[in-house]
Amino acid sequence: MDGANPADGPTLIRVRQSGPLAGTVRVSGAKNSALKLMAASLLAEGRFTLHDVPRIADVRWMGELLEQMGVGVSQKGDVLTLDVPETVTPEAPYELVERMRASIVVLGPLLGRFGTARVSVPGGDDFGHRPIDMHLRGLEELGATFTTSHGYIQGRADHLEGAAVLLPYPSVGATENLLMAAVLARGTTVIDNAAREPEIADLAAFLNAMGARVDGAGSSTITIKGVDGLTAVEHTVVPDRIEAATYMAAVGMAGGEVEVAGARPEHMEMLLSKLVEMGLHISPTANGVSVKASGKPHSVDLATLPYPGVATDYQPLLVTLLAVADGVGIVTENVFGGRFRYIDELVRMGADIRAEGHHAVIRGVAALSGAPVRAPDIRAGAALVIAGLVADGETLIGDAHHVERGYQDIVGNLASLGADVSYSVSG
Ligand code: UD1
Q1: Which of 92, 184, 278, 295 is most exposed, with the fewest beta carbons within 10 Å of its own?
Q2: Which domains are seen in the chain, by residue range?
Q3: Is residue 35 a contact partner of residue 56, using CB atoms and an 8 Å limit?
Q4: Mean pLDDT of the chain
């Protein structure tokens, strides 16, 4: 059934060769910020209003988790309201953490405000082994203690005490958990080698609006002076740079000229310079970024790194562009060991890619060929959708629910630019 609503059943995304693309597409607020802001609401009683919250599965699941804790959650369009009570049930159960490992970010705010948290230990996923040792060690330095049994971590803290925490790696999740724990700790916390992603700066801005005293977010050293209490606030989520990159890569594949409204060029400088090196024309507009492309992309080498490096979430999109580029490109994945698993799907579409360890050698081919493929995760799923734009015949992307975890309406948005993309219910 073409044009089906993804909520109707197991979905496939059907893509046919398309392009050139034209028009304007608007990006949503960032999933990776919205989820953390929702968790941060646990830090204060009262009504929070968040604007530009994407209507995606991950946000629904984080909403369910907060509801189970006793928070009132309601989303109308892109406005999310959270009514946080005086006390909550400080627990994140297996079913929800297993579905969305980002749920681990409730640990910091629960310990910070209630001094207790019981959270299911997140497992690995398609990116491979994903430990949370840095989250726990950092929180221990603030005075929390942890025991693990029956698959759950039980955290306790009579009170948290500010401390100097040096992260061995600028982990996004660990930085966020520590930041949210430290805002209500006694005294001053300094997080060194902190992650610098724009979503961290957004979280800090949200916390400061609530009354926290966070300084330096967006740099490697974040200083947090603990306060006695916080209040509920209204906030607009930072635009989604990964969604913006997805539409830019779509133009790189299919050609054309598109304005990506809401895109913040200052949040994606390294990516934009790589796209320019690949031959795309990119210029800022009053509302975002304009992207123009014609002909094959040029091959480049690149390596993923923590911000401000090329984000690992862009990697599947860039590999897909290189799959049809005019030469050989080498991509090094430095952030997640298992993040090349989707490459077999691109190879099924005729791509010439050899991945070994954390390197992939991509020889651009003249054309891709439409095939049934499976989306293994959010961004790789989106990459397969844009691969379909230049593949002859039809590409059917199964497990499309993975894509819907992170994109409010990738199908509608690409179709509005002239792409031949639709939902199709399987079975
Ligand atoms: C977040 C993003 C994800 C993005 C990633 C890196 C969300 C919901 N997800 O994930 O989309 O790809 O940042 O930009 O925001 N690590 C440890 N121990 C820890 C924590 C992390 O070894 O305690 C390792 C991880 O296994 C990985 C690396 O550090 O190899 C980076 O992970 P991290 O920055 O923490 O990513 P997430 O916060 O999980």
Answers
A1: 295
A2: 12-27+239-424 (3.65.10.10), 31-236 (3.65.10.10)
A3: no
A4: 95
